[in-house]
Amino acid sequence: LDAGSGAERPVPPEVIRACRTAVADAGVPFFVGRGIRAPEQAATARAAGADFVVIGTAVETGGGEAGSLDQFVRAVRGGAGEER
Question: To 5 degrees, how large is the angle CA 34–CA 53–CA 45?
């Protein structure tokens, strides 16, 4: 699921949830990307159902609007460092 090239905003959580439900029985990983520039946005995408969050531009530009790569990793793992 992708917000499109140059997206100013990430995909809304309700859209992520609807797509997650639609592919739940497919047995394939569910990726969400584009427009995710802050760790909090990555955490929201994971909480809404993304298996993987694509943050390519944030990494290429030095961490996006806020945070380092480590902060993104902690955000998608729930903040406590547990594996998901």
Answer: 85
Per-residue pLDDT of the chain (84 residues; tens, 9 = 90+): 987 777 788 899 999 999 999 998 998 999 999 888 889 999 999 999 999 999 887 777 765 555 588 889 999 998 544 444
Cβ–Cβ < 8 Å for 53, 33: yes
User: Which residues have a Cβ under 8 Å from the Cβ of 27 and sit 6 or more positions away?
Assistant: none
DSSP 36-69: --SHHHHHHHHHHT-SEEE-HHHHHTTSSSS--H
Q: Which three-class secondary structure state does DSSP give residue 81?
A: coil
Q: How many Å apart are CA 84 and CA 76, to the nearest integer?
A: 8
SS3 17: helix
